[in-house]
Amino acid sequence: MTREDYERYAAAFNARDYDAVFDFYTDTPKMAFFGITITTREQLRTFYSFLHSYVRETIAIEKFASSDELAAVEGLIRIECFRDLTREDLDANGMEQFFPIKAGEVQEMRQYIHYHLDHGKIASVGCALV
């Protein structure tokens, strides 16, 4: 995966094009972050469709490095809430570990993301926030 590949991936994510996002993954990926595990195209669509019906989430790439087996990204994740996301909404969608956010609130967080690659496609994802 090159920097240009990842920029296309981030652009698809920022545009909410979940099919284009999933096309960067192997047929059986493992995305595990903040207690959520996603292994199928439909799980990815369900998770992000719900979340993005409350917030606009964007990735700004700051640093990128890759090899045949790993891509590492340091970036700024911006969350802009346009509709109250309540504790009840989160709990009802299996996101008990997430925090509520109110319309108008903006959060920015530094995120470190490791993508394990298989023949240039993402096989698994791990990330940490600062």
TrEMBL record:
Coiled-coil region(s) at which residues? none
Read off the InterPro entries from this record.
NTF2-like_dom_sf (IPR032710), SnoaL-like (IPR037401)
What organism is this sequence from? Aurantiacibacter xanthus
Q: What is this protein called?
A: Nuclear transport factor 2 family protein
Q: Which residues form the SnoaL-like domain?
A: 7-124
Listed SUPFAM superfamilies = NTF2-like (SSF54427)
Which Pfam families does this entry report, sorted A to Z? SnoaL_2 (PF12680)
